[in-house]
Amino acid sequence: MSIGKPISRIEGRDKVTGRARYSGDVMLPGMLYGVIVGAPVAAGRVESVDSAAALAHPGVVRVLTRADMPKFGAIAPPAAVLNLPLQTDEIRHEGEPVAIVLGETIEAAEQGAALVRVTAQAAAPMIAGGRGKPDEPPADWASIMGGNFTKGDVAKGLSSAAQSVRQDYEQPARHHNPMEPSSTTAEWQGDSVTMYDSVQCAYNVPPVVGAALGIPPQNVRVIAPHTGGGFGCKGYVWPHQVLAAAAARIAGRPVRLTLSRSLMYANVGYQAWMRQRVELGAGADGQLTAIRYDGVNATALLDTHFEPSSETAKCLYASPAIATKQMLERVHANLPTAMRAPVEGPGTWAIETAMDELAVALKMDPFDLRLRNYAEVDPHTGKPWSSKKLREAYESAARRFGWRERHARPKRDGDFVIGNGMATATMGCFRWAGGARVRLKDDGTAVVETGTHDIGTGTLTVFTQIAADALGLSVDRVAIQWGDTRLPQASPVYGSSATMTNGSAVLLAAREARAKLDKLVPGVKDHGAAMRKAGVSDIVGEATFKLPKDLPFNADGADTPYAMRTWGAVFVEIGVDPDFGILRLRRVVGSYSAGRIINPKTARSQLTGGIIWEWGKATMEESVQEPTHGRWLAKNLSNVAIPVNADIPTSIDVDFVEEYDEHASALGARGIGELAATGVAAAIGNAVYDAVGVRVRSLPILPWKILQRAM
Amino acid sequence: MNTFEYLRAASMQEAIQQAASPDAQYIAGGTELLNWMRLHIVEPARLVDIGFVPDQAQIARSGTDLFIGSLATLNDVGNHELVASHARTLGQACLKAASPQIRNRATLGGNVLQKTRCAYFRSEAPVPWPCNKRSPGSGCAALKGVNERHAILGWTDACVAVHPSDPLVALACLDGRAEVIGPKGRRNIEMTGFHLSQEEARAEHAKLAPRLHEAQVESRLAPQEVIVSYRIPIAEGERSAYVKVRERDSYEYALVSAAAALRLVDGKIDRVRIALGSVAQRPWRLTAAEKALQGATPTKQSVLPAILKALEPARPLEHNRYKVTLAANAAARAIVLAAGERP
Amino acid sequence: MPNPLSRREFIQAGSVVVGALSATAEAAAPESASATTRTRANIKVNGTVHAADLEARVTLLDYLHDRLGLTGTRKGCNEGACGTCTVLIDGKRMNACLTLAAQCNGREVTTVEGLAQGDKLHPVQQAFIDHDAFQCGYCTSGQIVSAVACIEEGHTGSEAEVREWMSGNLCRCSCYPQITAAVLDAAQRVKQSSKDGQA
User: Fold this and answer.
1) pLDDT value at residue A711
2) Is B9 on the interface with C (CB under 8 A)?
3) Nearest to A181 by CA among B216, C77, B314
4) N or C: which end of chain A has fewer CB within 10 A?
5) Cβ neighbours of residue A233 closer than 8 Å, sequence gap 6 or more
6) Whole-angstrom Cα distance, residue A484 to residue A10?
7) How far is A56 from chain B (nearest CA, A)?
């Protein structure tokens, strides 16, 4: 039985020897290197693109401009940007592609790109931060999540409260910055194209590229070996992917279009600026009387990304009255997108900070305030939870942290003042339909065939374990083929959904294969010998994990009798050096209710990774949209900070509550990829308040924000 | 990156001759230069590689000085016992700089010549906003822009950048001097006067570098000149320390930094030297505080008032007023740490 | 035993890469490029000497990855801010993107591909597997090469020392605690095996 065992990643050898391939490692004969040239201003019109100097540079082969591009066909989601570049002179954001330089070498292509002269007429850009053009969220999106909601009488609840809090919580734009910059290599054969791509869902690409370039989607094959991190920015289809295919078709040679780190900033999405206004009212006993939530996120001028963080206000705590409303603001920036822990990442930052402020106003222990308002059923729909073991998670984490004993511990450690903070973590359950094939072979092995991806979450190992157990084989007898659209369509590797959905498909397919084997030769141990004896070379099981109403997507258990969500409790201990306003992480304890855990080793890494993600968000990450010029002030990793090893103590203690959720998936699992990247930012802010009495409501908590209060 | 001619020098003298063309640059470690070239900050037609010149990385005691060859890497310097004994603030500054990988290539000679980290300056080409260093005469976007990390001292409306080097601050604190050779021969430059603030550049650039905009004049090094070594006077019985304040615990530039070297007699400060980093385009010696602190107890409470007074001339920008407090606290912390070190 | 369909294609393409690409480059470049923008360097990579004849502006990273087809060393930021491209040059860890291939004349470069001895993984590589010190794997080559040097330098005396001296390698999936544990463990194994070697 391998499910539940901490098996090492099966692709480990490839990764530690450098043999694992990423799409930018692919070399094709005759390949050209493509480098994007972006618009130099955030708003206005392109007047001219002068390629003469670029073309004169040795090694530059072509400079593709708008005149070279076909008129792209209309595209739809899962395309991110629907208004593709190189189709109009109008500039929608800084860095929007206006040319593609093709060179024999990367050096020639990059220098060529620097030599392209773009002249533009600049207009004043609208900048994110409350100064953009207000807009309503899209109705189709809001009907699933983030729609305006009212329950009970919020005004009355607030006015009758013994204590209330009303604050704005802000977070800046932040980029995903996976270590692998996106890279697409396209090679045509007639009207068919093979794309090697760094993606989280290869199946998203063919319909978009097909529609844009006027070819049937089945003519687009996407091969995605390993993907070097995505966190959401490689989920939907971005313009550069279409442009890579278009460039290769025009040039008549394969084109590798890798986004440099700098080009990542304006060519793929990021999490947008958000402001969330939270009002909480409670009786003297801490029972919530009302929750009001008002949120706004920035999006691009024409294209839309909506961050439905109000869902957090609807699900976290029992309250007789809840009202939520969300808006967009349109600005001259490239399109944002989902980022690891969308919705609840921002949502818990706001709600869990507000709850802490309420606890202070009530003179109540913040943990007790959470317990007092525990939601036994979904406050939004009134439905029972499919499974919720948050109480156990609270208890386990608080005990291991020593929350109740914190006041007995020293308040100082050398130059540092110590603070403690806590928060609830939560993530909704996204599910997509996905399929798999499991093949028993007459050599005694089996193969899982599904077009899933390895973005670092451990899917390959987890699916192997699932199949092995269902087939009654040891893990080392099961192989997996992945990362190719020619394989059965898998569900995407985002939304913490892959194990739940595609894992379930693997389980069902393996069971079917096993059942067929048992029909052939009941109760056999050595299926290889049995199959050879019977003259059968392959036994195949196929399955899809279907969703309610056979829809492709399901959020939070919609159309089922249950509300589905994952939960956690996180406690942090930080140090603040009051002379400098710097923060250091000392200890984190988390406990999570996420259903059945298939592989505790990979799952643990997901949790610590999520916690570290939030440390970066809370204490250092910010992509500044320069206020006058509208472009990203820094498009690199030297002026944009993400955590380093020295920031992170090894004392991150996480555990799972033993749980089996029979409603969420055939495995009993829910999702864990993003859960730990919720709540932590608020816990950190709460700990800062505990340490030095400074409440920072605008991330990141940088030294001057602490010093300025103390000054 | 543009194409260029690449020459390897067998000696510093040969290098000077090879660098005689106006578009030539020296490359040693290359950890700064290659990024400048990728950003088109410079586009040299010829690179003269001095990284293969032998015997340029020695660290030794030379009379009353600590001698450091200019090709000594930051890790070489930071890990050396002579530096730990006689110039501890410099060793600490070296080891707090950059990353281990960069420190294995970055030389002490090159490090002091690094350029500002100002995000407006470090933009990819074409530079979309005013920057007098990148496009002379265009203005300074940081002056009224996003300037949390910029200067509080010595700036002008032409440029508000700070110098980001850590070792430079320590060298200035310890009154180190650079030995420099060029076509006109050999000379020494005191590290306290190696770089210019923008105010100094405004006053002197016409004489120093008439073809450059004042914002582009950052040091007194003449074209083709190259640093060959440093000498740091050994102050027997002194202790020193380096404090680097940054929001990330490693591999990041300073918000502010401070180097302090002091001699204690009967537990009181007999002599102290304090240099601040990342507050100006040059290291900033707090000479007024150095005088006032004679006889003071090396505690934060005791030293802070004099340091704050020495910082009264500071002229913060819209978003960096916090740097005055931060710099003062960093200087005080450096003094306290130095006092706690063994002499 | 992972076995993606695409592997054979990669290997076939990979075996063509060095010849095809450099031939193309030489064919395209000669007349228009000034001869003096090219240079030569003899670089030993993982034990094999390569006579490089290339434009001086080619970085060691692009030389290793695209010209030699040693794709284990990868590009994360191309400005020395992430450490993904860490290699050893004469045994010292350095960022390949901050080094011109030309600057490696006469030097020995070790990449991640040069660490294992046949099928036998280097203790650092094995420790990374055991401690789950990677997720997406993109930064892993750089982490491992950096760790090999970190141990050799003697910077593994404590957890805090390892965290500081491994901070030149960013990891966004964020395996830092596991990486630290792997490095500490590997340091013990290396110390043990050198003791065994001396016995």
Assistant:
1) 52
2) no
3) C77
4) N
5) A175, A176, A178, A182, A264, A268, A269, A270, A337, A339
6) 18
7) 13
Contact list in C for residue A457 (CB cut-off 8 A) is: 135
Query: Strands (DSSP E) along B160-319, which ranges?
Result: 177-182, 185-190, 226-233, 239-245, 256-265, 268-277, 284-285
Q: Scanning the structure block, which residue is given the tokens 């016995």?
A: C199
* CATH value at residue B312: 3.30.390.50
CATH number at residue B17: 3.30.43.10
Q: Are strands B226-233 and B239-245 parallel, antiparallel or unpaired?
A: unpaired
Closest by CA to A80, choosing from A388, A306, A369, is A306
B223 is a domain residue: no
- Examine residue B66 and state whether it is found in any structural domain, yes or no: no
Test C94 with B1 for CB contact under 8 angstroms.
Answer: no
Classified as helix, coil or strand, B310 is: helix
**Which of B35, B54, B73 is at the close of a domain?**
B54
Average pLDDT for C54-71? 98
Task: Name the token pair of B6.
Answer: 């690449």
Question: Of A575, A601, A595, A599, which is closest to residue A668 (Cα–Cα)?
Answer: A595
| Residue labelled with tokens 């395309």 | A79
Q: Residue B248 corresponds to which amino acid?
A: R
pLDDT at site A646: 98
Task: Answer whether B105 sits within 8 Å of C79, measured CB to CB.
Answer: no
Integer angstrom CA distances of residue A588 from A354, A419, A684, C171: 21, 12, 10, 19
Has residue B106 been placed in a domain?
no
**Residue in chain A lying closest to B332 (CA):** A579
pLDDT(B101) > 60:
yes
Question: Which residue from A27, A176, A457 is facing C13, i.e. has the nearest CB?
Answer: A27
pLDDT digits (tens, 9 = 90+) for C115-148: 999 999 999 999 999 999 999 999 999 999 999 9
Q: Residue for token digits 């921002």?
A: A346
Q: Cα–Cα distance between A397 and C9 in angstroms, integer?
A: 49
- For residue C141, what is the nearest residue in chain A, using CA coordinates? A18
Contact A650 C181 (CB under 8 A): yes
CA-nearest residue of chain B to A583?
A: B247
Residues 88-147 on B with a CB inside 8 Å of A are: 117, 119-120, 122-126, 128-129, 141, 145-146
Using an 8 Å CB-CB cutoff, list chain C residues near A177. Answer: 172
Write down the pTM of the prediction: 0.95
Parent domain of B27: 1-54
Which residues in chain A come in under a pLDDT of 70? 710-711
Q: Which residues of A touch C1 (CB under 8 A)?
A: 10, 476, 479
Residue A195: per-residue pLDDT = 98
* C78 contacts on A by Cβ (under 8 Å): 260-261
- Asked if residue B256 belongs to a domain, the reply is yes
Residue B275 φ then ψ, to 5°? -125, 135
ipTM field: 0.97
Rounded to an integer, what distance in angstroms lies between the CA atom of residue B4 and that of residue C57?
A: 7
Is C94 close to B101, i.e. CB distance below 8 A?
A: yes
Q: Give the whole-angstrom CA distance, residue B339 versus residue A193.
A: 69
Other beta carbons within 10 angstroms of residue A700's beta carbon come to: 22
Of B10, B25, B54, at which residue does a domain stop? B54
d(Cα C10, Cα A223) in Å, to the nearest integer?
11
